[in-house]
Structures are given as structure tokens and as C-alpha cells.
Amino acid sequence: MIGRKKGVLLMAITVKDVAKKAGVATSTVSRVINDHPSISESTKKKVRKVMDELGYVPNITARNLGKRMSSAIGVILPPLDSKERIGNPFYLEIMEAINEEARHYNLTTAIATAKSFDVLLENVQRMHLQKQVDGFILVYSDSQDPVINYLYKNHIPFTLIGQPYQYENEIIYVDNDNQLLGKQATDFLIKNGHKNILFVTNTTHESLYFERYFGYQKAMMLANLKVHPSIVIEQTEDYVAFDALLKAAQATALVVIDDIFALRTMQLAQLYGYKIPETLSIISFNNSIFATLTHPYLTSIDIDISELGRVAMKKLQELIHDEISVGVRLVIPHRLIKRETVIPLNDQNT
């Protein structure tokens, strides 16, 4: 008995009640609650339907006390040390996808973030030692990151979105083929008649930078075109040198590290008198909401952020329950979205 409502006695619905109405064993209901792979999808749907009809809510807290589990996972963001990172929609989209997938497993999410790696590591250590979460998802890969070493060396379940710098054969990670992304973005510019192409970035220590820049280099070399050093814009003085670098290379097109920084790059180029795309074409990555917020709309490569988050969460759940081995790489497909910031070079003066 759990109480009264408008004179009606309310009785607690049990696993036995669900099992009886569904026509299955109580052990089957328990396995459905735990989303055990031994139970077929049709049986899971039938049992869950009965649970909804009866208003049965699993006592997750009590169940996990015995298992010493928290029913939560931690999502680790990189240090939010710049306006671009704080405002980058990638992190919001990836968290939404992770949250949505976590709901299927009756899990909640907790966010770990900070302005520096040192503080971020402290936050992650606290979450682990206080058993606030059962595992983690890192949504970045950075060569300066101490967090991944802590997780690995302490045998803490985690999955990574991005390509690791070490332990590649022992980590479960989900990623796009970022080198292929960089190559295809550059190839697209080359096919549109551009030869003097530069790569622009605001980071030089994240895995996706190296991979996308390598892809740019590969495309340029295969086309027998000059490979330029990447233009790195991290400090105020870097903005001042931007125009001189473009003029020195006689650049007609740019490959930019991601959408939000592409918008900043477009603003900077326009400040120096360039017209997008008439005198400077631009292509970027992520296909975020920013790609269509201002004109001209940004040509971008869609990396399927939702699928990155969904798969990372699914694999973490399998890892926590010993249903998957380590050393797994999963590659998420991508597609190029043609918009307004790239036009054929021979059309620019027509």
C-alpha cells in the first residue's frame, strides 16, 4: 500500500504483477528492466507496454544499491576556455544525443567541465571517487588532456568521441574519418577551380585538427598543388596577421576547422575587404545550426553529431555491463552540404 487518492486505495505494483499480466517469468521482467541482451526486442516491447499500462516504475535506486551502481554516467567536456568553445553548438547537440540514448537505459547524465585541464581532472576524480557515475564519455580528444590517462589507469569504464593519442588498441572510441573529411572538403574546392587554398584553425592540439589538416595536405599533394602551413588564429596578434597571410598565398579559398570558427573567419575576411564567396570561398565542418544563421549560408560537412553521441552512449552501456571488449573503433559516416560559401572560381567574375 502506498497511499490514497480521492478515496481510492493505491497499491504498489510489483514485478510479479507485471510478469503475471505479460505472461512471462519475473526473471524476464528483471532482465527487461536491465535491458539484458538475452531478451528479444519483441518481449521487451511487450513487457514495457505492460509496465506502462500498470504504471510500474522500477526502483532503480534500490536495485543499484546491491550492484553498487549509480544509474548515471558522466559527460566530460573540454576546458571551456574561449568564446568559441562556450558557444559551440557541437557540445549541446552531443549532450542532447547522449541524454536521449541514456534514457533508454534508465540512466541520467552528469556534466564535468572546467576552464582548465587541472580543474577538470579534479572534477572527474571527485565524481568517480564519490561514485556519482558508473562511467564517462569524453566528447573531445586533446594531446594535453590528463583525464584520459586517469580513466585508463584506474580501469574506469569510458568511451571517447574522437581519435585517441594513445591506447588506440585498448580504448572504445567513436569518430568520423576526419582525415577523409579534410581531404573531401579540399577536393571540393579544387573541383571548383581553386588552387591557392589555406587551412584555418583556432586549435593545434586537438586530434580533429591534425586529422583534418592531414586530409587537406593529402588532397593538395595529390592535385600537385602547394601545401601551405595552417593559419592558426588563437591570440589577438594572429588576427592582425590574417590578411597578410591570405595575400602572400594569393588565397581564393579556405578550409576552416569548424562552423562557429568559420563564421568568425568570414567576419574577419570581410573586415579586410574580401567578399564571401565572390573573392574568397569557404568550407567548414559539423553542419551546425550556425551554418544557416547568417548569409551567405555556409557550405559544411555534416558529421552526424547525434549518431556520434548515441553510439558513444550505447557502447559505454555495453562496456559497463561487460558486453563488449576494449579496443573498438566505430566510424560514423558524413556528407557534404552544398550551400552558398563556395562557388566555381571561373564564375566569380561573371
Automatic annotation (TrEMBL):
InterPro entries given in the database record: HTH_LacI, LacI/GalR-like_sensor, Lambda_DNA-bd_dom_sf, Peripla_BP_I
Matching Pfam families? LacI, Peripla_BP_3
Question: Where's the HTH lacI-type domain?
Answer: 13-67
Q: Which UniProt keywords apply?
A: DNA-binding, Transcription, Transcription regulation
The entry lists its GO molecular-function terms as: DNA-binding transcription factor activity; transcription cis-regulatory region binding
Looking up PANTHER family in the UniProt record yields: HTH-TYPE TRANSCRIPTIONAL REGULATOR GALS (PTHR30146:SF109), LACI-RELATED TRANSCRIPTIONAL REPRESSOR (PTHR30146)
Entry protein name:
LacI family transcriptional regulator
Q: What is the lineage of its organism?
A: Bacteria, Bacillati, Bacillota, Bacilli, Lactobacillales
